[in-house]
Amino acid sequence: MTLEFRPLAGRFVGEASPIDLRQVHDAATLSRIRAGMDEFGVLVFRDQPFTDQEQLDFAQRFDGTLHARTSAAVLAKNRFGNEALTDISNVNDQGEIMAGDDRRRMAGVSNRLWHTDASFQDPAGRYSLLSARVLPPVRADTEFADMRAAYDALDDETRASLEGLQVHHSIVHSRQVLGFEFSDEEQARLPGAVHPLVRVIPGSGRRSLYLASHAARIIDWPLPEGRLLLRDLMEHATQREFTYRHEWQPRDLVIWDNRATMHRARPFDDKAYRRELRRTTTLDLPLPATA
Ligand SMILES: [Fe+2]
């Protein structure tokens, strides 16, 4: 049976027809999923009962090399012993719900700011695959924003003014915005990365705004002026018409294209309820130069 995608909301989220991704090894189906990613930007696969290893294996089959530096790993070692398997949870090394003042929780709550994964690294993240393992009995949604539609909605003059601009992304910046401070030694290990503000997605040829809470300054611009432009663009790109709110079901696997979307976690009572998801993110190798 052919894999198909049904639009869930607007034009950038598709729900896959029933499929067991653990069994997908053939090039035709994998390339059908990649084409779906180019068409939509976010794909939802229901009922994917991945083990950790199965998720790692599938992510590699899907897009090659996995990213092992997508979080502020200077804070703590990954509890699974594999930095490519990112722990998106409110659980500590002992498997207990983190205390309210746990330093990792304080760093992690910044994921409630709109961002795109590992933009503070070079290479950044390309696809992220997030698997729902343990869900709380209350809503704990993830929101997505379509950065190609946001780009398309800009007027011609604004679009022209953005061409060629470069942005410094820093996880130190995105955490400091909420009052979280890294030590000098930690900051030295997190220098950030520079990426174009407007990116072209190779598969679709569409242009996309590449923004995130990590976006700290525009290269060669005065700091306040650059930050104001970044804020304006964030405000524009996260208007309701460009966003989708995902209500998680057990065993959902959601894949998004970090080059074409932003996302953020929505708050829930994370000191009362356990929530465990696992993320694998692939490495976004440099794009070929565009004309
Ligand atoms: Fe994220």
Give a brief rundown of this model.
This protein is 24% helix and 25% strand.
Topology:
Blueprint: E1 5-9, E2 13-16, H1 27-39, E3 42-45, H2 52-63, E4 86-89, H3 103-108, E5 125-134, E6 142-146, H4 147-152, H5 156-162, E7 166-169, H6 171-176, H7 184-188, E8 193-196, E9 198-200, E10 207-209, E11 215-218, H8 223-237, E12 243-246, E13 253-257, E14 261-265, E15 276-283
Parallel strand pairs: 2-3
Antiparallel strand pairs: 1-2, 3-13, 4-15, 5-13, 5-15, 6-12, 6-14, 7-8, 7-11, 9-10
Account of the protein in words:
With 291 residues, this protein is α+β, with helices and mostly antiparallel strands. It has a single domain, classed as Clavaminate synthase-like (Double-stranded beta-helix). Helices cover 24% and strands 25% of the residues. It starts with a strand and ends in an 8-residue tail after the last strand. The site of fe (ii) ion has 4 residues, from loops.
Number of domains: 1
Low-pLDDT segments: none
Mean pLDDT equals 94
Distance between the ends: 40 Å
Element-level helix/strand string: EEHEHEHEEHHEHHEEEEHEEEE
Structural class: alpha+beta
Largest sheet: 7 strands, mixed
Radius of gyration: 18 Å
In DSSP terms, counting alpha (H) and pi (I) runs of 4 or more, how many helices? 8
CATH superfamily: Clavaminate synthase-like
CATH topology tier name: Double-stranded beta-helix
**What ligands does this structure carry?**
fe (ii) ion
- CATH architecture classification: 4-Layer Sandwich
